[in-house]
Amino acid sequence: MITCEGLVKIYKTDEVEVVALQGLNLTVERGEMMAIIGNSGSGKSTFMNILGGLDRPSAGTVRVGDWDLLKISDEQLVEYKRSTVGFVWQNNARNLLPYLTALENVEMPMMLGGKLDRAYAKQLLEWVGLKERMNNKLHQLSGGEQQRVAIAISLSNRPKLLLADEPTGSVDSATSDRIMDIFRTFNRELGVTIVIVTHDLELAGKVDRVVAIRDGLTSTEFIKRNPELDSAVYNTETVGRRTVKEEHEAYVVIDRAGRLQIPKEYLETLGIGNKASLEFDGEKIVIKAPKSLEGKV
Ligand SMILES: Nc1ncnc2c1ncn2[C@@H]1O[C@H](COP(=O)(O)OP(=O)(O)OP(=O)(O)O)[C@@H](O)[C@H]1O
């Protein structure tokens, strides 16, 4: 569904250039539900904005389905945003129309797209747990319920890719679990590919794969140990919330040129600067401080 190779994004402001993405590589399969984590400033939102067609890449390859987002024209970009991607942002509910019902709010983008499908609109509201409230006006719903209407709207035009940037940023843990379960329902029922940006490692335990971005590059991947196991089953009072570390296996990402990112704390502990000694014993590769430094750290 998504292929990125050597994706670069440079922001130019007056005299300063900021390299937000430094050659990011990432592939997301059709029907996958995955998360992106990373520190503030690591380039997560930049990446999501590029995938969503809100920002243009500077160089590299980025393909979503049949679309090449580096070469796409402005007219095609409008069509791409309308037909291929759906968005869930933290404050999505702000864009809803308060004097319309929940159902009318979900139907509105369908009407604008010329494809009203009431049965599907009702189905979406049922999936987000608002079956009984769909004929209530927006102002009669709580903030959390309004947010769920906004989540239903994100799929109203049947996008193939759903992008969620910190969708659970300002809610309590029970609500964020619920939102993740809604995403899982969408994913299972509609086969929609879902990419979620989050700071919350516990939430990341609810997805199949987590990719960590550091300094505008993918650094580590966590892949679910048992993808058949729906993590929702763990979400009970007795077992509690499981974390990405318990449920996923960690892998370091190696790019096509064979480069990998080694965590800074490992390098500091071993006193490795810009050179290391590399040994291959036929089974494993050992990275050590340069021979001249051995024993000095
Ligand atoms: N429009 C812009 N103009 C200039 N620099 C920008 C712009 N947008 C982002 N940047 C810079 O690009 C880098 C990556 O920012 P980005 O917002 O993608 O990070 P992030 O990982 O989403 O951070 P956060 O978790 O804090 O939202 C940062 O150094 C940021 O200052």
TrEMBL record:
SpoVT-AbrB domain: residues covered: 249-292
This protein's GO CC annotations: membrane protein complex; plasma membrane
UniProt KW keywords: ATP-binding, DNA-binding, Nucleotide-binding, Transport
Domain (ABC transporter) ranges: 2-240
SMART domains in the record: AAA (SM00382)
GO MF term set: ATP binding; ATP hydrolysis activity; DNA binding; transmembrane transporter activity
Signal peptide: none
Any matching Pfam family: ABC_tran
Superkingdom to which the source organism belongs: Bacteria
PANTHER family xrefs: ABC TRANSPORTER RELATED (PTHR24220:SF685), IMPORT ATP-BINDING PROTEIN (PTHR24220)
Name of the molecule in the record: ABC transporter ATP-binding protein
Annotated organism of origin: Paenibacillus antri
